[in-house]
Amino acid sequence: MVVVHETPPSRVLFGTGARHAIPDELDRLGVQRVLVVVSASARAAADELSAALGERAVARFDRPMVHTPVTVTDEAMAVVADEFVDAVVTIGGGAATGLGKALVARSPMPHVAVPTTYSGSEVTPVLGETEEGVKQTRRDASLLPGTVVYDAELTLRMPAGLTLTSAVNALAHAVEALWAPDATAVSDALATEACDLLLGALPRVLADLGDVDARIRLQQSAWLAGTCLATAQMGLHHQLAHVLGGTFDLPHADLHTLLLPHVLRFNLPHAPRAAARLTRITGDDPAAVVARLVASYDGPTRLRVLGVPEEGLGAVAERVAAAPYPNPAPVEVGPLLELLRAAW
Ligand SMILES: NC(=O)C1=CN([C@@H]2O[C@H](COP(=O)(O)OP(=O)(O)OC[C@H]3O[C@@H](n4cnc5c(N)ncnc54)[C@H](O)[C@@H]3O)[C@@H](O)[C@H]2O)C=CC1
Ligand SMILES: O=C(O)/C=C\C(=O)CC(=O)O
């Protein structure tokens, strides 16, 4: 069998204070009319950037939304057109990055992504968009942000809950790369290092949210994990997150966090290589370790608490089983419904 490994070409500026290099990066790109897309949490960083850019910061859009609803993208596209925007800088979580990608898909232009969570979207050519409650996810090289700026100083105020769930979102990217049918020596190496680094750094950060060194390590693991998502195919875990998230408009990272132990339990008996690596890293049953980690920091553990109606689970199982993402365990309605009921 021949597997194809592609390394997506992103340029990464990494380091505390890296955000101050954004104006020079925009000079390098030769752009003049910049739209700043910003999550509510990153207003101060956007103000700082706008002041540094002066007249080049022609517009700001501050309402990116999780799961990238096309109605919100349409609003932002009107700003792109009205202001003759020729580049977008996104500062914030995966919702801001996703909106940047959706704009680039409609109006090709340079995208500088400045992530403030661990979603990893900034290094992937993946975009999920939601229209009328249905989330469609696609992959295209043109969606990958050209420049990524990782500045751990922008993550120091991330609360414990988001730190935990966003890091587990990253962990899920690495875990699924380990059992992906197109895993390669490179994706295995990235995924193994991502899991090891992340599981070491996360308890340190949760013990001291302002520990810059541990935050840097978490950001490095998110970068590695995002790169796994960029190169290897997603499986059942991401598919469940996308179908549930799009259908019930749920918080993305919370959903990943509560699903991961269940999907690990479901898949690991069918994925011996991934099981061996994860057992070596965790020193225990990987599903139990992740479940304990989430529970001990009061993370989300029940779909019903997120607001998913029990009677909606059957339709989710049927939709996923009708067109499953590639997955080591067979994806059939009955076992899937059991998994969902356990998570509910
Ligand atoms: N295409 C891809 O490769 C990927 C896409 N995604 C997408 O990204 C979105 C989820 O992104 P997330 O980052 O989980 O959440 P998010 O972008 O929705 O942010 C969640 C909340 O956290 C706040 N926030 C962000 N950074 C913060 C910080 N440093 N301190 C305090 N608050 C902060 C935001 O303002 C928001 O209220 C979903 O739409 C998901 O589908 C997620 C992973 C990969
Ligand atoms: O589920 C994830 O973390 C990875 C991919 C997506 O979320 C797709 C997207 O909404 O951009």
Automatic annotation (TrEMBL):
Keywords: NAD, Oxidoreductase. Residues 164-344 form the Fe-containing alcohol dehydrogenase-like C-terminal domain. Its EC number is 1.3.1.32. One of its GO terms (molecular function) is maleylacetate reductase activity. It is an enzyme of class 1 (oxidoreductase). SUPFAM superfamilies: Dehydroquinate synthase-like. Residues 9-151 form the Alcohol dehydrogenase iron-type/glycerol dehydrogenase GldA domain. Coiled coil: none annotated. The keyword NAD applies. This is Maleylacetate reductase. It comes from Nocardioides vastitatis.
